[in-house]
Design a protein that fits this description.
The chain is an alpha/beta fold. The chain has a single domain, classed as HUPs (Rossmann fold), CATH 3.40.50.620. It is 48% helix and 11% strand. It has seven helices and six strands, in the order E-H-E-H-E-H-E-H-E-E-H-H-H. Strands 3-2-1-4-6-5 form a six-stranded mixed β-sheet, with helices on both faces. A hairpin with a 2-residue loop joins strand 5 and strand 6. The chain is globular and about 45 Å long.
Amino acid sequence: MLKLIHNPDRNIQFALACSGGVDSMAAADFFYRGKKNFKLAYFHHNTPQADSMLELVLKWGRQHGIEVLCGNLTKQKPSNLSPEEFWRVERYKWFDTLNMPIVTCHHLNDVAETWIFSSLNGNPKIIAPKNGKVIRPFLLNSKQEMIDWCIRHNVSWFEDKSNKDVKYPRNRIRHNILPECLMVNPGLLKVMKKKIISSLENKSQ
């Protein structure tokens, strides 16, 4: 069973950021089974596999009676931004145009990757469970738990080949550095979970 930090109210409609990957498809199925009031929000990055990913999201939406909102990348990447950063900036700009809360599918492995990346740049950070109208309720779940949900409930997802390309810093951390960190400290994800819980407790005080 997936665990939520924030459980969306059934009476409040939200947009679920959905790429068609295993994390967002697990979240979509989870919320559908929970009878939540949501739409899917897909942002088209104009990458080679973006059309196939959109097709899967649209198909799932049709099968389950969930509306799909679609944004499109319309700008050229400036030279001072990496592709990852550029896509993230433009994606969140589009999210900001939607007149409803945005739920993303960031999970515990994302927290560890962000902490490693930010630490290597001298400013260790933990992904915030909430930032403005953006809500990240799945942070206490591991990547494997998201995969297990999809397998257990027969939910299809799309494997984006670019996620394995280690020319992108995030992928290099995910595939090379994080596994080594887990060899040094097998309890690293538990450490990240404690940091998230501690940040929530500090905010509630």
